[in-house]
Amino acid sequence: MANMKKTYGVTFKIADVIVKIKSRFPMAPPGDNAQGHEINSMFLPFVYTGDRKPHIAIDVEVARNLPDIPPGAKELFHANHQGEGASWRLFQNSKGFIYRGSGVTREQIATINPRFTRIECTLLARDCTHCPGEATRKVIQENNGMVWFLFDVAYDFLQILLLQYLSRGGRAIMPHAAGIRDATGDGFLFAGKSGSGKTTTAKLWARYTKATVLNDDRVIIKQRGKRFFIYPSPWSGQFQNSPWTPLCAAPLKNIYFIHHAPENILTGLSEKEAFTLLWQVMFPPFWDRGALEHTLSFCHRLSRDVACHRLGFINNRAIIDFVRTANTQTMNELY
After folding, report:
1. What is the pLDDT of residues 292-307, one digit of tens each?
2. Structurally, how many domains does the chain consist of?
3. To pair with 248 at 20 to 30 A between CA atoms, which of 75, 107, 144, 294?
4. What pTM was estimated for this model as a whole?
């Protein structure tokens, strides 16, 4: 049985938001296979060991059976992850919200307060079928399956939770984009849909420069005063930094909406054009009218206040100097 006195868990700091995940049940190690190493690479840079009070607190329970959706709860949103065998739904009732995740290893239900700051998340007990690694299987067997995995809470659910938390106050957005912090400290955002070249761009900058890749798929943009900053997030695409790579926010200088092209070419965008392209790479909180309005307003300000361009590029290192030169020219035009 789980040790009822000991608390297991971890605390993260993501875009200055402190998230504490704790449980009375043991947290199983991620495994010694490729997926386990990927999880460590994704989340280790965000571990927080300070003593600040968390903005978001998640209590994890483990059960043989999940509780039912409360009667009368209204379904707000249903998402299917094609090819992953997983989906999630969001409900609302008089007490707050209910998240229901489904999938081979993601069966869970969470009750969430109206401010999205206090969460009780219940996961199904685990067996060893989908758990590679001797150490992982040993922990599961010793605790009769009453254990939980960080991945089950932090991959889909925490991403959606943080998106909602940031959106409700107009604090930030999380577009599909690669974020680069150049050696000068300048931040560049390379936005685009799947296949547009975000990971390719990240790999080029990582290979040929001393810049830091903040993420190749999910970057958080926050506004501080009149300036916008890009922050790393754990939810990356195919590019993985070393777990020991220091990840720092960067002031956002330019937004590039990228696509593969036969030559490197840059086209300026109007505010309206930039907003249209930005909205295409967003995952807005459609289920929450207030949060959706905040997100729209944020995107309008971002499109207005930050230089935006359409960027066609060739997959070679020449694009790096091309972008740096374009950034210098943009700064000269502004100042």
Report:
1. 999 999 999 999 999 9
2. 2
3. 294
4. 0.90
